[in-house]
Design brief:
By secondary structure, the chain is mostly helical. The protein folds into two domains: 1-30; 33-134, no CATH class. It is 67% helix and 0% strand. α3 crosses α7 (120-134) and α6 (112-118) crosses α7 (120-134). The protein starts with a helix and ends with a helix.
């Protein structure tokens, strides 16, 4: 006997897959494309961390990770869930942040999503600095 409900279920799944793929594409789309502004954002970032309130402690390593997280969120959000970095972002970050090679950027980006979700201080500081950067309208 032909089980026609299987075909109906396939139609439903096909429609759902199309919707999921569309939503995924929207969520993976970078907020920014203009990588030339990353240097300006880095300059503002450094000014902001120099003026952090006394209750926020940020060492050099955490500051690097924090800036990388913000830039990836803006320019290459898929990287934070394991996808490849958008073209030009890695080389720009390597140049601006003084890494020896673009591969160093990739190394420093490992686990950023974990830092943000598991360490409340990192998350709160990231959100604070992100908000301050957003106020600059860059």
């Amino acid at each position: 006997m032909i089980e026609y409900d299987r075909l109906e279920r396939l139609k439903v799944l096909q429609k759902q897959r199309k919707q999921i793929m569309l939503e995924e594409a929207l969520l993976l789309a970078p907020f920014r494309h203009d990588t030339q502004n990353i240097e300006l954002l880095y300059s503002h970032f450094n000014k902001i961390i120099a003026e952090l309130p006394a209750n926020i402690q940020l060492d050099k390593r955490a500051a690097k990770k924090l800036f990388l997280f913000i830039i990836l969120y803006l320019y290459s959000p898929g990287t934070l869930i394991g996808r490849k970095m958008e073209p030009g972002v890695r080389a720009t970050l390597a140049d601006i942040m003084g890494f020896h090679s673009p591969a160093s950027v990739t190394y420093h980006c490992m686990g950023l999503e974990v830092w943000y979700t598991q360490y409340p201080d990192f998350k709160n500081t990231t959100d604070y600095i992100f908000q301050r950067l957003a106020e600059t309208n860059i």
